[in-house]
Design a protein that fits this description.
Layout (H helix, E strand, L loop, with lengths): L3 E7 L2 E14 L4 E5 L5 E2 L6 H4 L1 H5 L2 H5 L3 H7 L7 H13 L17 H9 L12 H14 L12 H14 L8 E3 L5 E3 L1 E2 H13 L5 H16 L1 H4 L5 H9 L4 E5 L3 E6 L4 E7 L4 H15 L8 H7 L2 E3 L5 E7 L5
Antiparallel strand pairs: 1-2, 1-12, 2-3, 2-10, 4-7, 5-6, 8-9, 9-10, 11-12
Helix pairs in contact: 4-5, 4-7, 4-10, 5-7, 7-8, 9-10, 13-14
Length: about 325
């Protein structure tokens, strides 16, 4: 059984706990920290979006289409459906000569309540541009159009553009990706079960440039720079990933996925990490991720105050009274 990674307190008592696994490795696969079953194959879901964006950049498609920092960052995002997110996705599609009717990610209301309320107040319904994955899908369409592929059906595993994207993920994780470990993601693209150890290695490579050919290493650097320049595009208002990247800049890249997964890299140390909470709790994965960053990236012995707060968030009730907190458990050291 995986250890408890996060405790949730109310008053002086632990009210609940989240078990899981986490690992930190260098670009050669050396383990600096691990807890739980790190060879457990999990669906990383949205946590690997930056890896899926690599072909769009390394092939030169992003440059040829004139994609901006904001647009490249959005290709890596699980955005909140805010106005700037929607506009940026639409801009990417225009540059590819397409529009939102080309998106095959499905439609849902924005995850940011303010954006949902604004749409409803205007008497409007959401479109595929509001889907949290529309940036990633717009990036796929950009790549397909630049390659000369018909983007129709790009979400399917046998589409030529998706084959290129899947191959990049397989190479980054050094994992065989096929029907035996394939599922379907919430946005309808293939998602593959990959061991946490392999995911951490992929992000150590993504952050350090090691273990990749020159064009891919340059693409990873370009993506990290874009995300650093436009952290709002990666998530949005009051979102964990945006807060961490805004606070630490190029020193850290983080990206969450559904069901309690979080991955990232500390480029200056050449480290990658991967987290999975057994119960799928995103709030717990956030705490574990912040705790790992605090553990490995102190500044002159001091932890960045934003990261410190995210590692031990307070819990408040509807009246704004502080009633408890979340905290890293002993397994996180």
């Amino acid at each position: 059984m995986d250890p408890v990674l996060v405790e949730v307190t109310r008053g002086a008592r632990v009210e609940s706990a989240h078990r899981g696994a986490a690992i930190v490795v260098d670009a050669k696969g050396g383990v600096l920290f691990s807890a739980g079953d790190v060879d457990w194959a999990v669906y990383p879901r949205s946590a690997v979006k930056a890896l899926l964006a690599l072909p769009m950049v390394e092939t030169g498609a992003a440059a040829r289409l004139g994609l901006t920092d904001a647009e490249i960052a959005l290709a890596c995002s699980s955005h909140s459906g805010e106005e700037d997110h929607v506009a940026t996705a639409a801009s990417m599609l225009r540059k590819a000569g397409r529009d939102e009717t080309c998106l095959e990610c499905g439609v849902h209301w924005p995850s940011y309540d303010g954006a949902t309320r604004a749409l409803a107040a205007a008497g409007k319904a959401p479109s595929a541009l509001h889907n949290n994955c529309s940036g990633k899908h717009s990036g796929f369409i950009c790549l397909a159009c630049d390659r000369g592929d018909d983007p129709k059906g790009y979400i399917h595993a046998d589409h030529p553009t998706m084959k290129v994207i899947t191959a990049a993920l397989a190479e980054m994780t050094s994992t065989t990706l096929n029907a035996s470990n394939q599922g379907i993601d919430g946005c309808s693209i293939p998602t593959f079960a990959i061991p946490l150890r392999a995911l951490a290695l992929a992000f150590a490579r993504f952050g350090s440039g090691q273990g990749m050919h020159a064009d891919r290493a340059a693409a990873a650097k370009r993506i990290r720079a874009a995300v650093t320049a436009e952290p709002r595009m990666v998530a949005g208002t009051n979102r964990f990933d945006t807060k961490v990247i805004a606070a630490l800049g190029e020193r850290v890249f983080v990206k969450g996925g559904a069901e309690g997964v979080h991955c990232g890299t500390i480029p200056e140390l050449g480290l990658g990490f991967a987290v999975k909470c057994d119960d799928g709790a995103g709030r717990a994965a956030d705490v574990v991720t912040a705790a790992l960053i605090a553990k490995f990236l102190p500044d002159n012995g001091q932890v960045n105050p934003v990261v410190a707060e995210l590692a031990r968030p307070t819990l408040k009730n509807w009246n704004g009274f502080e009633v408890g907190a979340m905290r890293p458990a002993a397994a996180l050291g």
